[in-house]
Design goal:
The structure is a single chain. The chain is of the alpha/beta class. The chain has a single domain, classed as Rossmann fold, CATH 3.40.50. Helix content is 36%, strand content 19%. It has 5 helices and 4 strands, in the order βααβαβααβ. The protein has a 4-stranded parallel β-sheet with strand order 2-1-3-4. The protein binds iron/sulfur cluster. Iron/sulfur cluster binds next to helix 1.
Length: 110
């Protein structure tokens, strides 16, 4: 029997402020349909973490990075609300926390 391909593990971080008015449906619709920023993933890909930044200036990211690494994501997506809707002023810091942890970062979700 052939080995099954190792699934790509994806984490998503989104804007705490926008989460007050967004349940994340757009992110999951895009992932489930393999559309927009998720278009290149195959059917085995998994979302293994989905969390907010914790509010300006992204304080939760540093607190969670150990747990996030424990989920062994191959990539972290910065949600569309973070990189486009809010034009987050702290996005470079947030991106850097993941990159310093050796996790690839992709901008956008849906
Ligand atoms: S740090 Fe950025 S993503 Fe987080 S609440 Fe503030 S604007 Fe939104």
């Amino acid at each position: 029997m052939a080995d099954e391909a190792k699934p790509t593990k994806i984490a998503v971080i989104r804007c705490e402020t926008i989460s007050e008015i967004c349940p994340g449906a757009g992110c999951f619709a895009a992932f489930n349909g393999r559309k927009a920023s998720f278009a290149d993933y195959d059917e085995n890909a998994q979302i293994v973490a989905y969390f907010t930044c914790g509010g300006c200036s992204g304080r939760r990211v540093g607190n969670l990075i150990g747990e996030i690494k424990g989920a062994e994501p191959d990539v972290v997506h910065l949600s569309t609300c973070m990189v486009k809707s809010t034009d987050c002023p702290h996005v470079d810091y947030i991106r850097g926390v993941f990159e310093d942890a050796g996790i690839k970062v992709v901008e956008g979700t849906h």
